[in-house]
Design a protein that fits this description.
This protein has 498 residues and is of the alpha+beta class. The chain has a domain at 174-490: 7 Propeller (Methylamine Dehydrogenase, Chain H), CATH 2.130.10.10. The protein is 16% helix and 32% strand. It contains 5 helices and 28 strands. It has helices at 2-14, 27-42, 85-98, 107-122, 477-497, and strands at 174-177, 190-192, 197-202, 205-210, 216-221, 229-234, 240-245, 249-254, 259-265, 271-277, 280-285, 289-294, 301-306, 312-317, 323-328, 333-337, 349-351, 358-363, 370-375, 381-386, 391-397, 402-408, 413-418, 425-429, 434-439, 446-451, 458-462, 466-470. The strands form 7 sheets. A 4-stranded antiparallel sheet has the order 1-28-27-26, with no helix packed on it. A hairpin with a 6-residue loop joins β12 and β13 (301-306). It starts with a helix and ends with a helix. The relative contact order is 0.07.
Length: 498
């Protein structure tokens, strides 16, 4: 019996019914206590704190691994070293909060109380601590904030980046009928005076159009129907008009008195081209001869230039009067010097690059030594020449017969009129010869092209018996006002010097 009593005493001692006060704390108790304390520090009160946060004691790097980052616990983001640990706690709370049901009745009051608790506990609004903002309006800058990079990243166009492009109408400003107009490529049947009067030859008659008023006047008509007009040319002053005819003669007319002053006879074939240089009138005929006429004297024929073997269909004096350019049906371009007493009549330059008749000739107004020439159907090229050096500066294949050329000083452009096969007018940027615009409307080949005295409008005459006026070179009013101001200032300076 004593033996059984001893064993009962031993069992009663080993039951451990009483708590052990000096034993260490269990692991689950340690984790629960750490979770509760951290939740109270980072979250608003009244909420459950059974979610483990990314700021736990677990190390972010696994021992023994080189530069390998361990992901944070549930509810956290990937490891970013520069991120604030307090904001990570807030972000974890927001992610867990999204899964909870939303009470629509208490949403407004809850958000206000949440903001108040957040400001008191964290020192900042919890909404401003979001790591990613995927929706809604962007946050406004604080009051009084100034962005120093505003000028650098401004979307407004600066004056240097604004590129003005002028509007070029593709339709003519005016269309006039030209019945009985001769459809002959080699003739020059239109010219525009410095007094804004347009002269047009219709078979054996010459009509005058006052471009300012719109009045049309019949100037003259040849007596015979078999004789037709081949060429027209105004004097520099715009008061006298030279008319070349198919009966080998040249008539001089006083336009404003509508009176014929004299008739010049020296050629043996029709006069297809005319050009003035002060008191000297130069004429080119089908025979290939070029004659100089001094209209002040009775014996007007003063010189003959021989070089072309076929009809001279292009004839232009340079603006400074130093050179005469001639083009012929023999595909040649000649440049002749101004005739002087006792001087020679040899040409300065002769170019044979064109493969077709050269009727289109134009001198550059702002570069007196530059000449442009255009070839006929077999050539179709625009060639730019330097008269001083004799070299061809540039050449362009237009793919169409060239009947006329002119330079537009307002925008420094070159204009070409074309026959077969395009029957159009093309504006080129000079000297690049890039296409600026194309003017279409004529139903037959364009025979001639002329520029208005203010250099804003071009007139074209074509085989479809129409005259079309295109306002393609109007100057900007602001630019025009500045030019007038400069001219007036310079005139005042000159007067004070005198």
């Amino acid at each position: 019996m004593a033996q059984f009593g001893f064993e009962n005493d031993i069992h009663s001692i080993l039951k451990l019914d009483m708590p052990i006060t000096n034993a260490p704390m269990a692991r689950w108790q340690r984790k629960a206590s750490s979770s509760n304390s951290s939740a109270l520090n980072g979250l608003s009160p009244g909420k459950s704190a059974n979610v483990s946060l990314s700021s736990s004691k677990t190390p972010s790097k696994t021992p023994g691994k080189n530069k390998k980052q361990t992901p944070s616990k549930m509810g956290g983001d990937r490891f970013i070293p520069t991120r604030n640990s307090k904001q990570m706690d807030v972000a974890s709370f927001l992610l867990s909060k999204e899964n909870e049901p939303v009470d629509t009745n208490n949403t407004a009051s809850a958000s206000e109380s949440q903001k108040a608790w957040s400001m008191s506990l964290n020192g900042y609004n919890i909404d401003d601590a979001k790591i990613l903002h995927l929706g809604g309006k962007p946050l406004n800058a604080p009051e009084g904030y100034q962005n120093n990079l505003k000028v650098l990243y401004s979307q407004g166009a600066t004056p240097a980046s604004v590129k003005k492009t002028r509007y070029i109408s593709s339709t003519p400003d005016k269309i006039l009928d030209a019945p009985d107009l001769r459809n002959d490529f080699y003739l020059n049947l239109i010219d525009w005076s410095s007094r804004n009067v347009l002269a047009v030859a219709l078979h054996n008659s010459v009509y005058l159009l006052d471009a300012s008023q719109g009045d049309i006047t019949l100037l003259m008509r040849l007596e015979s129907e078999d004789i037709y007009i081949c060429s027209l040319s105004w004097t520099k002053e715009g008061t006298y008009l030279a008319i070349g005819t198919s009966d080998c003669k040249i008539q001089l007319w006083d336009v404003y008195n509508q009176k014929r002053l004299r008739s010049l006879a020296s050629h043996t074939s029709r006069v297809a081209s005319l050009s003035w240089n002060d008191h000297v009138l130069t004429s080119g005929s089908r025979s290939g001869h070029i004659h100089h006429h001094d209209v002040r004297v009775a014996d007007h024929h003063i010189c003959t230039l021989t070089g072309h073997s076929q009809e001279v269909c292009g004839l232009k004096w340079s603006p400074d009067g130093r050179y005469l350019a001639s083009g012929g049906n023999d595909n040649l371009v000649y440049v002749w010097p101004r005739m002087q007493e006792g001087g020679t009549t040899n040409s300065v330059q002769c170019w044979s690059d064109h493969q077709g008749a050269v009727k289109a000739l134009a001198w550059c107004p702002w570069q007196p030594n530059i000449l442009a020439s255009g070839g006929g159907t077999s050539d179709r090229h625009i060639r730019i020449w330097n008269v001083n050096s004799g070299s061809c500066i540039s050449s362009l294949d237009t793919q169409s017969q060239i009947s006329s050329l002119l330079f537009s000083p307002n925008y420094k452009e070159l204009v070409s009129a074309h026959g077969y096969a395009h029957n159009n007018v093309v504006i080129w940027k000079y000297p690049a010869l890039t296409r600026v615009a194309e003017l279409k409307g004529h139903e037959d080949r364009v025979l001639s092209l002329i520029l208005s005295p203010d250099c804003s409008t071009i007139a074209t005459v074509a085989g479809d018996e129409t005259i079309r006026m295109w306002k393609s070179f109007e100057v900007d009013p602001v630019k025009k006002a500045k030019e007038r101001l400069v001219k007036s200032t310079s005139s005042v300076i000159h007067q004070s010097i005198r």
